[in-house]
Amino acid sequence: MTNTTVPVGVGALTFDQVVAVARHQAPITLTDESLFAMATSRALIEDLAHDTRPHYGISTGFGALANTSIPPEHRAQLQASLVRSHAASSGAEIEKEVVRGLMLLRLSTLATGRTGVRPEVAETYAALLNAQITPVIGEYGSLGCSGDLAPLAHCALAAMGEGEVRDAHGALVPAADALAAAGITPVQLREKEGLALINGTDGMLAMLVLALADLDDLVATADIAGALSIEGLQGTDTVFAEDLQALRPHAGQATSAANIRAVLAGSGIVADHRGTGFTRVQDAYSLRCAPQVHGAVRDTMAHAARVAQTELASAVDNPVVTLDGRVESNGNFHGAPVGYVLDFLAIATADLASISERRTDRFLDKARNHGLPPFLAHDPGVDSGHMIAQYTQAGIVSDLKRLAVPASVDSIPTSAMQEDHVSMGWNAARKLRRAIAGAQQVVAIELLTAARAIDMRSPERPGAVGAALVSAIRELVPAPGPDRFLAPDIKSVVGLVTSGALLAKARELTEIR
């Protein structure tokens, strides 16, 4: 847990702030400006609650029942009933960081003063986050339109002191007990507040921000893995020259090429084969085109980041309180912008893993690995080396290709055809999380294999960065030898990838972006 408090106000949160609260349990505080904005807009809602004209979500039902007038004495029940009925998720429990992320982003929208909730509702959400009380939410229940309804409803239910939550220690407890233990008074919702708590793209947006953080590390790690594979396969570094890369000036390509050059700097393996007359006119695409593929992933991430930044600066609710005091229905809750880039990132992630698997496969084929034993086996025939590690990669990459099929092109009408086009952005976010986890394993296996190949090239030596990375792997995985239980070795290097430890080691020695 970080001790740096994240202020939640009328302005947009940064990516780093979202990750700090969602993943690292950073504490939060509501700014005075946000409390004033919420109190101001709430006064407008209170006035409309007494208006004789119908106002959606204030004095009417919801969705297809928007034309049903609700008498004043039933309006508090209307909001509580909305939350209870919409907390209808099912399936596996979603991750704590996702729940915290979506709660933070809903709170951020409340803090803009554009939703009309009372300040005490926002303060309850802040208290839940700071007490690390995490509502239990099933994986299914959001269509990415009209907000991430079921997931957000479970959070609102917890704020009401109902449903199940995980406490700060991870224990499953009734929400009422967790709130009581933390000294938090459950909220009693009033006009519009239940609606304001469930209308938003916060779940899919939280997963997008977390995915971008993971991919930022993963694509840099893939650059490192590609460079180690080039060393292990006695490839050339000439194709990564800055002037050649500049002939096609994509920003991501330039960054990945620079990273590969940095890792290959001073490589004895590359220098030896350059000096003795490199016999291959060109390396295979998976080596030579690494900057082009990895760079395209980076450029896709940059596009997704722009969408995420815009969404973080948005106040998504329906109806919304405008700056000039109107309360207007709108369609800003539709998740298409976020859903599209989530799907786009799944495509890029699958291809990043695909080229990594292709580089690994080259190590294992005696006809293509330039003097190494088949499958990098210690005693080929008796030993199988890394043969099945590549099978594992292949199985994951196949799964990633399936996960790259877009979710956002699908739509199933709901709410008696009132909600007749939905984004499925939540589904896009869920499959992207699985895709990134798979790609991390694929890149880890490439690193494990490249390190083995480099050791088998001894006395030829890699560059200083490559040597340090192989050494870091060797702290957890023994040097090449007879076959051993391989799964723990893979798991160890996956840990180096997902923790960022290997990337951090490289950054101690050179600039890696």
Could you characterize the architecture of this molecule?
This is Histidine ammonia-lyase. Its main location: cytoplasm. Pathway: Amino-acid degradation; L-histidine degradation into L-glutamate; N-formimidoyl-L-glutamate from L-histidine: step 1/3. Its EC number is 4.3.1.3. The chain has 513 residues and is mainly alpha-helical. It has two domains: 6-200, Fumarase C, Chain B, domain 1; 207-509, Fumarase C, Chain A, domain 2 (Up-down Bundle), CATH 1.20.200.10. Helix content is 56%, strand content 5%. It has 20 helices and nine strands. Strands 4-6-7 form a three-stranded antiparallel sheet. It has a two-stranded parallel sheet with strand order 1-2. Strands 3-5 form a two-stranded antiparallel sheet.
Provide a brief overview of the structure.
The chain has 513 residues and is mostly helical. The protein is 56% helix and 5% strand.
List the helices and strands and how they pair.
Elements: E1 6-8, H1 15-24, E2 28-30, H2 32-49, H3 75-86, E3 90-93, H4 96-110, H5 119-130, E4 134-135, E5 138-140, H6 149-159, E6 164-166, E7 172-174, H7 175-182, H8 193-198, H9 202-232, H10 242-246, H11 251-264, H12 268-275, H13 285-288, H14 290-312, E8 320-321, E9 327-328, H15 336-364, H16 387-403, H17 425-456, H18 464-474, H19 486-498, H20 501-509
Parallel strand pairs: 1-2
Antiparallel strand pairs: 3-5, 4-6, 6-7, 8-9
Keywords: Histidine metabolism, Lyase
Pathway: Amino-acid degradation; L-histidine degradation into L-glutamate; N-formimidoyl-L-glutamate from L-histidine: step 1/3
Pfam family, one: Lyase_aromatic
